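Reopening this one. Same input as before:
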Amino acid sequence: MRKQPAMSGVIFAGLLVATAASADPYNPAERAIGGGLVGAGTGALIGAIAGGGHGAGIGAAVGGGLGAVAGAATTPARPRHAYRHHYYRHAGQYY
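Same output, byte for byte:
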């Protein structure tokens, strides 16, 4: 009867990864949310393995906070010239 907790954990992990993967890599707020989700999930997993029920909560809180800070701090600059250069080069063909 251990299939139910294992299956719900797999579904939760898949939703967590899908949410983090859909974040805009150039938006610091979305990167903070995605990093926080991944950090909270990882922290909860490590905390549950290391310390049980209370360890999972502490691990989720610490991992979520560190993941959010790391996600926002590592946001790269948005490339500004690539799309406009392509648009202006081919804009004359549509008129």
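So the earlier flakiness isn't reproducible anymore. For the record, The chain has a mean pLDDT of 78.
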